[in-house]
Amino acid sequence: MSFNSITGRFALLTIVFVLLAEILILVPSVTNFRRDYLETRLERAQIASLALLATDESIAADLESELLENAGVYNVVLRRDDIRQLVLSSPLPEPISATYDLRDQNFGASVRDTLHRLLNPRPQTIRVIGEPVRDAGQLIEITMNTAPMRTAMIEFAVRLLAVSAAFSVLTALLLNLAAQRLIVGPIRRVIGHMTAYAASPDDSRTIITPSASMGEVRAAESALAAMQHTVTASLKQRERLAQLGQAVAKISHDLRNILTTGQILADRLEESADPAVRRTAPKLVGAISRAVTLCETTLAFGKAEEPQPSLSLFHLRPLVAEVVEAEELAAEPAPGAEVDFVTDIPAGLRIRADRDQLYRVLANLARNA
Fold first, then answer.
1. Alpha-carbon distance values, 207 to 115, 189, 203, 231, 322 (Å)
2. Per-residue pLDDT at 144
3. Is 68 within 8 Å of 51 (Cβ atoms)?
4. Domain residue limits, the chain
5. 8-state DSSP, 181
6. Distance between first and last Cα of the chain
7. Residues 121, 127, 129, 132: is their CA dihedral positive or negative?
8. Nearest alpha-carbon partner for 359 in 258, 267, 287, 262
9. What pairs with residue 78 in β-bridges?
10. Interhelix angle 147-179/6-53, nearest 10 degrees
């Protein structure tokens, strides 16, 4: 499992957050363990002292030492009926360093004492005061060594951390499996469709069909499907336009050959003895020349980019007059209708433009009008 993947990072974050949560509750847990440990020592000391008080005879020193050792304390003091009585005792190895009263100790003080005990490795003798269980007296007091308690606290903390680590790893594995099924699987499906579509964008069978159960992934699938439909439609349209362009190019090629023949014949009309024919022939030659040029431009467009305009400076009025005269000859108004062409252009107006392209523009405007 790589931490560069979604599942890897998801598992790593799960382990980190679970361990962080366990660390945050570690100190309160160890604090409660310390309190339970001290209360257990008080209960054991109470049981040992009550066993001794049940008989009127004194006990042997060996038995007293055994009772104290089993309770894990040095001395036991009971207060009953306002009488303080030393029930069990043994020599203290050192003076008492601290006293802890469990009857009125708040949680903050308990946490402070717990941290102090964990951070202080030197064994000490302490006094612990508490209430006897089952109202067996007013107060019970013991003295004990801190070394066994500190060892038990450390072992408890280590066990808690080990359990937390195992729990976090198990949780991460379960979440990893869930993420693989619920998140990574649908994402990989989307990636697979994207790869297949990139390899064959004109094949509509590679378009994804939204089917994810997660709202976010399904939205991504829907957006991808919409984009794929748009791209596929554009590609098909371009293909149809390319086929149309090839057909137009073939038509233009044949039409150019026909117009070339017509241009040759129109050139011969200029030699006609009829004045009307000679007057009309140049216009016919110009029209055929423009048609040939248009065919050549169409053929060139099918092979490369559209040629740049050939700019030149010329008078606009003769060009417009040529357009009007050609359109008057070609115009076929409906019965009862009249078509008038009116030009209002100064005689000296000169412009810089492509003469043939401007001619086609003006001719199209006139026909559309």
1. 63, 12, 8, 10, 56
2. 93
3. no
4. 6-176, 189-237, 308-331+342-369
5. I
6. 74
7. positive
8. 287
9. 85, 140
10. 150
Q: What is the CA angle 33-38-41, rounded to 5? A: 125
Give exposure, 249-267, as e/b (b: 16+ Cβ within 10 Å). Answer: beebeebbeebeebbeebe
The DSSP string of 323-351 is: HHHHHHHH--PPTT----------TT-EE
The pair of structure tokens assigned to 102 is: 């469990």
Please tell me the distance from the alpha carbon of residue 29 to that of residue 162, in angstroms, as a whole number. Answer: 14
**Spatial separation of the C-alpha atoms in residues 125 and 98, rounded to whole Å:** 7
**Average predicted confidence (pLDDT) for the chain:** 80
Examine the pLDDT at 233 and tell me if it is beyond 80. Answer: yes
d(CA 199, CA 205) in angstroms, rounded, equals 12
Q: What pLDDT is recorded for position 330?
A: 61
Place of tokens 């990893």: 176
What pLDDT is recorded for position 61?
Answer: 76
Find out whether 190 and 6 touch, Cβ atoms under 8 Å: no
336-355 confidence digits (pLDDT tens): 556 777 888 888 899 999 88
Neighbours of 353 (CB within 10 A): 17
Q: Containing H/E element for 255? A: helix 215-269
